[in-house]
Design goal:
The complex is a heterodimer. By secondary structure, chain A is an all-alpha fold. Chain A is built from 14 helices and 2 strands, in the order ααββαααααααααααα. Chain A has a domain at 57-96 and 145-276: MetI-like fold. Chain B has 14 helices and 11 strands. Chain B is globular. Classes of the chains: A mainly alpha, B alpha/beta. The A-B interface holds A 5, 8-9, 11-12, 36-41, 56, 58-59, 61-62, 65, 123-125, 145-146, 224, 228-232, 237, 240-247, 250 and B 2, 5-6, 9, 12-13, 64-65, 67-68, 92, 95-96, 173-176, 212-216, 226-228, 335-338, 340-341, 344-345, 348-349, 351-352.
Chain lengths: 282, 353
Amino acid sequence: MKTLRRNMLAIPIIVWIGLLVGTPLIFVFVLSFLSRDNLGNIVVAFTLDNYKRIFDPIYIRVFFNSFLLATLTGLVTLLIGYPVAYITSGLNPKRRAVSIALIMLPFWLSSLLRTYGWIILLGNTGIINNILVGLNIIEKPLNMMYKFGTTLVGTAYMLIPFMIIAIFNSVDKLDRSYLEASYDLGAGRLKTFFNITIPLTLPGIFGGFTLVFIPALGLFFISDLLGGGKTIFLGNLINTQVTKGRNRPLGAAFSILMIVLVLVVLFIYSRAAKREEGGLFQ
Amino acid sequence: MSKRNSVVLIVVSVLLVAFLVSCGKSSQPQEINLMTWGGDFVPREIINEFEAETGIKVNYKEMQSNEDMQSVLEANPGQYDLAVVTDYMVDILRQNGILEKFDKSKMPNFKNINPVYQNNYYDETNEYSIPYAVSTSFLLVNPGAIEELGAKPITGYKDMWQEELKDNIVVIDWSVEIIGLVLKSLGYEYNETDPKKVQEAKEKLFELKDHIMRFETNTPEDSLISGEAVVGFMYSNQAVKGQAEDERLQPVFPEEGMPIYIDSFVMSKDAPNKDGSYQLLNFLMDPEISARISELTKFTNANKEAEKYLSDEFKNNIMLNIPDEIIENTSFYIDVADVLEEYEHIYSEFKMQ
């Protein structure tokens, strides 16, 4: 009885989540098995066509393209984020607070606006090119925009705070006496780092990777703006199908595919986290 | 403790329901709910004047796409009175039975609308739509830069395949437009369904891939202004903006013909304030008001009587006042879902090339 009363407080949140997350999900799932008529209206007639269609070789390539972008984003943010998190956790409390605040600061601005910032920076008549040409270092502006790499820079920039914070939490919890023990036993800094620090902060690395990988699959506007729309990712595909393509059932099938992909990643993560005992969601 | 909790719970639930109900409630009698494109498409200053004159409040909702407007209109027909949608969407909405037939006696100014823009395929007798803004898409080029690259001057789509223009073209990012452009360059029509012709267009499209430096739907003109592209395929209002900022840029109306779009007012069948809506529509079709709208939005005016109030600058701009013989060579994108799917697939393959 007591637990029931205590749990009553959870009812609003369960109803809330059920209504606002659960219902649309069920809706998308059901939609993915329906068809649409010539005008783009949904027709209630069960079909597996949408699923057959998404396994078209072209769409599989789009799928791998997204997977590649998300994985590379995870790696790039890890390589840059780890040192930042490591150094931040070693700072004195006051500086550390400032550092964390600076990492979180970009979230206060619209992500679209920040993406346009990159165009101003990297464009042919952008700041970097203007400076380089002005200093006579290069003759013609460097072509830095509208490439796969530009999209990668954009997504990595957008998501790196998640990586830094996840690793920071892990590094912060690290028991420094292990490091001292390692030094006492004669291991150098590098050896200690790779044999002690990295393994002990693996949960943070996995967590950060998951937090970066999942949203990287869906940030279609970055590839539109920075990638010049030259390649497509799952997010673009879904976006076109549910809007101008007027094929919402197909869009829904792609969304389900993306959800499955995310679940696989989460599953791998939870296995890894369990092995390492401790993780982001525990 | 538990009693207090349940009281809190009940109060919160009641407030939540009250909040949701108030959100769902549609307009007051003297309000008009209008939805359309952003970017001051129906200029705020004109709406302010209408509000001051009639005391009717106009709620303006900016939408991202025709499909978004369709969803809202169909999900809740009593919520919005008016919408401005593009030609093909008039056809869809009308067939889905959610549009009100206009009572033209309630808007005497309808007589001002240019017959050239009436009675099109999507509304053969103009019962459901009022043409508001006319636009086209064509090429905006930088002739000097094209010469510097050693390419011939551009007269039509076919010139976009020149080797010299590699990595120098910016285009609108939409399968139907781009495949339509390729079909036209081959001498076919838009929305072609013949598999052989579509296959031919596909192959030609793939050859264009290296020439395109950027796909951009919202501000393609920027790439020409900054010099990163020398040829752009874009909407007329974007080309007008581009030339206004950079005099070197010149429009080219492709000799193969070009697409035309007519954005039109439509009224929901269950519009809560039909009388007010007629008042607003009549106000917007007043020749002087209509001329001012065109000056502000940079769209070709569908109002014949408005011409005499247009500035010389507007009238002399060939992109806004396109000669009749060029308008005769324009056509609509007729949106058929089957074609769309095939085009979308080709377009994906093209981009993943």
